[in-house]
Each structure stands twice: as structure tokens, then as C-alpha cells.
């Protein structure tokens, strides 16, 4: 893999830290800004909603720009949004900064995926995507727990300052390392690419990715109150549990990177079934602290192995839309990241307790399996040549 792909992964690490770190900060934000825990949880949903809108919109608007310029503009806006979020005392302003940061993040990730997969070559999309998604999972391993520690020691605002600080060297590295667009290079054809994105099988794959990611975010957003109120862990354990989820997610992305280019069904079918079983088991045993810790690790692995493989399939099926395909993949991830916390928050708000998001996660994965394992889908997978991505 070219070194520039790993530099893009560094920037995605900072952005992933921002997107996920609220899982360990929601109780503190709710108390400081005098809102309910479900209301504070909408900060995650709002960020995801901004990415849904921002991914395709920013990808289209930035088509005439050189990719290096687009990456720097989006990353600078992301940094500014976090500086404002760190100093505000208004929940409404904080909510607005999450939207701005999300739109910038979405534009960056869409352009970053297009840049990375283009540099990696036509048969290594999964490996390139896994490097960028690996930045997200490393955020879970290191960035999110570190944000939780900073929040516990010096307040949640410190975590926002830290994200802004980490993003600055990433911007400098992009300026120096992303190759400039060759003079006179043809501009992408937005209409042609949009037509290529209308394929029904692509829409089904996007829906599956959204459902699986929705299940992940439904539980992950409320992981801190789940493990403290149901599993019996003290607040000091929250960073360790977040790190366990992050280690699992990194393992999952690594598995996807090795198999999604050549053997995607070996991940999707057994992985999806195991993911459903894991959410059901977690819901039934959440009050048993050691089991809960183990399942946080396992579900992180399964969620990201299946989710990253689905995203790779989106990129293959959108091969005729190299500039906009990544934006649709980003939007699909964040449709799930929006719906999941909203559904989990609704279950908690209905008085079903902090265990209820686990049952919602199981339901979402069951729905994905029901769609993905239809007779027609199984027939298509059997006719796929060995060692090749699922055909469009």
C-alpha cells in the first residue's frame, strides 16, 4: 500500500475519535449542559445525520477540486468545528458544531476513499478501505478510551481539544504527501457516476451495511451507561471496555481487509449469523460483568468484520463511479449510525432500561440476515466465481 493511504488513515483516526468518543462522554455532557442522557445521545445521531447528507453532497460539490485541496478544506473545517465545540456552553451550539464537523468528515472520507482505492489499484479496494476503516477502529482502541480518560480527569471539553490537536499534523502530512492532480486531468462526470449508482443490487448492499452499522451504533452509543448501570462496572472501567471494543473492531477490519477482496461470503454469512447470536447472548447476560466484557470484544470484532466487508462490496459494485462510490458507502454507514442511536435512545426513553439497545441491535441484524439470505441472494453467491467479489 502507498504510504499516502496510511496518512489518510491517520486523519480518519482523528475523525473516528470524534465520532465515537461520545460513547464515554455522554453522561458528563448531559450533566454539564443539563439535558437527558437520550438527548445527549442525539449528538451521535446528529453527527451521523450530517455525514449522510454531507457525504454525497460534498463529494459532488468537490468534484472540480483537486483531491489534495478537497481533503485539506474538509479537514480544516473539521478542526474549526471542534474548537468551537470545546468552548461553547450551549447544547444547541454543540449540536450545530457536530453537524458542521460531520459534513466535513463525510466529505473527507468520501474523497479519501476515492483517493485510497484509486492509488491501491482495481483489485485491492478491500485492503485500501481497510486501512482507512482501520483508522476508525484505532480510534476505538486508543482515541476513544483516551478521550474518556481526559473527560474523567479534566472534563469532556478536553477531548474535543485533543481531537483538534491531533488533526493538525494530519493536515500537514496530507499537504506534503497527497500527490497533486496532474495538470489538464479530465474532471469526473457526475451524471455518469450517478447513473452507475442506481443499480438495485448496489442498493441492497447499501441497505445491509446500514442495518449492520445501525446495530453497532445502537449499543455502542450507550455502552457507558450499559456497563455501569447493568453490568456493575465502575466509571473507571469504561475506558477499558471501550478499548476492548476497539481492539475487537480493529481485528474485524483486519479480517475484512484480508478476505473481502477475494472471499467475502466467508465473512458475511457465518459472521452475520454469529453477530446475531452475540447480540442475543449479550442481551441475556449483560448483568454478568466478565461475560459482558468478553462480548464487548467479540461483538466489536464481528460488527466491523461484517460491516467493512459490506463496504468493500459497495466499492466493487460502484466501480463505475470511482469519485462518488465512496460517498454512498459513507452515507450507508451513517444511515445506520443515525438510526441506531435513535432507536436505542427511544427504547431507553420508553422505560425499557439500558439493556434494551442490545435487543434492538439483535433485531437490526436479524433484519439484515432476512434480506441478505433470501433465495435470490444465495443463488447469486453460488454463481460468483471463487476468489472474486460478489458480482454487480
UniProtKB/TrEMBL annotation:
Gene3D superfamilies given in the database record: MFS general substrate transporter like domains
Domain Major facilitator superfamily (MFS) profile per the UniProt entry, residue ranges: 4-380
Domain of life: Bacteria
Subcellular location: Cell membrane
Record's keyword annotation contains Glycoprotein: no
Keyword terms, alphabetized: Cell membrane, Membrane, Transmembrane, Transmembrane helix
The keyword Transferase is annotated on this UniProt entry: no
Transmembrane regions: 38-63, 70-93, 99-119, 131-154, 160-179, 200-224, 236-255, 267-288, 294-316, 328-352, 358-377
Membrane topology summary: Multi-pass membrane protein
NCBIfam families for this protein: cmx_cmrA
Identification of the protein by name: Cmx/CmrA family chloramphenicol efflux MFS transporter
Organism name: Micromonospora harpali
Biological classification of the source: Bacteria, Bacillati, Actinomycetota, Actinomycetes, Micromonosporales
